[in-house]
# Entry
Amino acid sequence: MGCACQQSNSIYAPGLATIVTSEQMTETERVFEIKLKEGMHLGHRPGQFVQVSIFGIGEAPISVSSPPTRDESFELVVRKVGNVTRALHALPDGSTIGIRGPFGTTFDIDDAKGKDILFVAGGLGLVPARSYIKHVLANRGEYSRVIVLSGTKSPAERLFTDELAEWAARDDVELHETVDRADDQWTGNVGVITMLFSKVKVDAANTVAVIVGPPIMYKFVIMETEKIGIPRDRVLLSLERRMKCGVGKCGHCQINNVYVCQDGPVFKLSQVFELREAIQ
Ligand SMILES: Cc1cc2nc3c(=O)[nH]c(=O)nc-3n(C[C@H](O)[C@H](O)[C@H](O)COP(=O)(O)OP(=O)(O)OC[C@H]3O[C@@H](n4cnc5c(N)ncnc54)[C@H](O)[C@@H]3O)c2cc1C
Ligand code: FES
# Structure
């Protein structure tokens, strides 16, 4: 039973949902477990987002962070930046919010079967990437190498630290982390995320790359995937643009002839390579 829109039969009207639990992760990020009302399941795929509405305040697109393998409730990680996200952070557990979606294109979990997957996650990019990573780990035998390169500005901004520790301890996950600026406790790599490419030997012929992070990161990470020679139709990017309707009607998210909310947010590099505004 999928899609919050089934409560209202409209892609514009939010379905009702409950905040089951929430927890502060960092100074600005909070993770929310959300359950749709009336026993509905979200039915998302990794890479998709939902439009979260706080009644009387507004709506914001937020990526689904939990894997589709766990669908009775789902997780969102929200950075407090403006009206909607500030209001969401202030809501107590048990509150009712609105959910539209899931929307957008997805990371192709079937196409990547049997291949190595190279995840490159910068900052909040780990949020959508985690949905895919957890799906792969729940179906580990279907994929070959799993390489995760993850970077944040500082150690205090690392998300899902318990899970990062679990992945680091597994011998079937190659996790490499870095921070732009270390603190007294940090003993790991220091530097931008692209420095982690020197730590792994990637088999270009058998690798799918999944890249999610802040806009500035794409140009430099793409230089690395091009240098390695990963074909552009096996380099997947999730692009973030300002959105309103989420369903291809308002034009807020448009880059030339591309609507990020409908044609994306997940694109193959081959689709957007010539669209300089998308990746620079
Ligand atoms: C597909 C997708 C997935 C996303 N996933 C996540 C996620 O998982 N977690 C998460 O925390 N965020 C995510 N975001 C970002 C989130 O949707 C935005 O931060 C959203 O704007 C927050 O809404 P708000 O009302 O709280 O803040 P807003 O009031 O929209 O302000 C947010 C920030 O944007 C600036 N801003 C406001 N208006 C404009 C404008 N017109 N142009 C440029 N800048 C402006 C503000 O100064 C502020 O810094 C995602 C966005 C997209 C498109
Ligand atoms: S957000 Fe309205 S067209 Fe994409």
